[in-house]
Backbone:
């Protein structure tokens, strides 16, 4: 029920967001391609949410040993990787159209790519470790280490300078007129979409664990 | 503290008696230089001196990965890893003991590799020997902090030789970036730059503290 409600909310917000992006003014310098902003940044926020939730749930799992925290951690990591992949895929399209290059090693881009690799390694670690309890422990430790890159990514421009493509974080007034609403709705869509996907994957993981246990019990009997 | 010294002494003594890890790492790092010679357009000569700091650290990282993989693999024999986990001691100190032994072993290999690089690329390392040793030690400390923790994790996974670099390399960037930039500036100007050293110190401290705290969850019986 919760999943369906969250799905309906996410769908509604996404429809509003699509309408707002359609209505948003076309940037005088960059043209329509600038509208990728309304997808690119929300995807980054979805990735941050996923990776921070993974680290937090990992820490809670290490502290309490309760399996549900681990299930939430893996759900958040997978959803975070999906958002991060969309973020990394949308960036070069925008960059090619505006700056003429698919890729530039600017600090935020580089750290985002590394974040993506860190959580891909997290998922591979889970796949290659045997024993659910050991997998959960190892993954929690690695997820915590990996989360160090999230604040570094957010403050990358201030820490490492060189804003070749990415500006410093958005502040009030840094968007043009009429661009604030689609941008805010994009963030809301990422947030609600993230919650929906997280709950869906969390539920799926619960079903997977229950099925694995049932199969193990059947084999032993 | 006594645990730290006992583990450090055990690892160094084992290495002194067999010398297999140091020898393998030394041969590997020399081979990496040969590979660079064939990979660089003008060969690994004074003409490619500008790339030397980056190449030197690539050699250090790959050599370290070879050695770090062995640090815990040897503990699997006779189930010594379970013995370590069952020892009535704080596991963080076991981590520090393993880390210090890895730092010492990699330090020896770093010194020999630097000599080879100095000869091949015609760099007068003797003029900056002391500050360079400091940069190498800081990079070594961070590399071994992540590598020791990841080594303990990877050794319990399938495809452990593959898992170790996958876990280490994405987390290594602050250490590698600081070390390469500091080395490059040191070789160019003869002075130690503040910013990369600062980055190295912060990254080393963060990784060491997190690894010390979380190592408890990595060792299992």
Residues:
């Amino acid at each position: 029920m919760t999943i369906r409600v969250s799905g309906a909310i996410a769908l509604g917000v996404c429809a509003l967001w699509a309408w707002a992006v359609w209505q948003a003014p076309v940037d005088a310098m960059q043209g329509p391609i600038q509208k990728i902003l309304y997808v690119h940044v929300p995807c980054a926020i979805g990735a941050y949410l996923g990776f921070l939730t993974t680290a937090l749930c990992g820490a809670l799992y290490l502290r309490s040993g309760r399996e549900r925290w681990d299930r939430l951690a893996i759900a958040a990591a997978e959803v975070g990787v999906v958002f991060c992949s969309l973020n990394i895929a949308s960036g070069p399209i925008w960059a090619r159209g505006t700056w003429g290059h698919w890729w530039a090693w600017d600090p935020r881009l580089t750290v985002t790519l590394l974040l993506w690799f860190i959580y891909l390694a997290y998922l591979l670690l889970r796949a290659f470790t045997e024993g659910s309890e050991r997998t959960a422990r190892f993954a929690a430790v690695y997820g915590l280490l990996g989360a160090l890159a999230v604040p570094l990514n957010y403050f990358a421009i201030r820490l490492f300078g060189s804003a070749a493509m990415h500006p410093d974080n958005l502040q009030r007034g840094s968007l043009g007129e009429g661009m604030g609403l689609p941008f805010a709705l994009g963030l809301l869509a990422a947030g609600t979409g993230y919650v929906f996907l997280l709950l869906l994957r969390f539920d799926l993981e619960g079903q997977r664990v229950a099925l694995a246990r049932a199969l193990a019990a059947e084999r032993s009997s | 503290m006594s645990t730290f010294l006992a583990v450090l002494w055990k690892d160094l003594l084992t290495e002194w008696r067999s010398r297999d890890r140091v020898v393998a790492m030394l041969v590997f790092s020399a081979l990496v230089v040969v590979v660079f010679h064939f990979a660089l357009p003008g060969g690994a000569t004074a003409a490619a001196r500008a790339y030397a700091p980056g190449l030197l650290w690539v050699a250090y990282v790959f050599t370290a990965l070879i050695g770090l993989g062995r640090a815990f693999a040897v503990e699997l024999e006779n189930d010594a890893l379970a013995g370590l986990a069952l020892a009535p001691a704080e596991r963080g100190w076991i981590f520090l003991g393993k880390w210090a032994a890895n730092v010492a072993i990699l330090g020896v290999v770093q010194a020999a590799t630097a000599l080879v690089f100095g000869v091949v690329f015609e760099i007068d390392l003797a003029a900056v020997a002391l500050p360079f040793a400091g940069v190498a030690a800081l990079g070594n400390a961070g590399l071994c902090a992540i590598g020791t923790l990841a080594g303990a994790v990877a050794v319990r996974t399938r495809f452990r030789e593959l898992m170790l670099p996958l876990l280490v390399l994405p987390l290594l960037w602050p250490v590698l970036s600081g070390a390469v930039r500091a080395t490059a500036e040191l070789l160019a100007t003869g002075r130690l730059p503040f910013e990369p050293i600062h980055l190295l110190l912060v990254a080393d401290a963060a990784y060491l503290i997190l690894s010390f705290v979380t190592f408890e969850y990595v060792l299992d019986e």
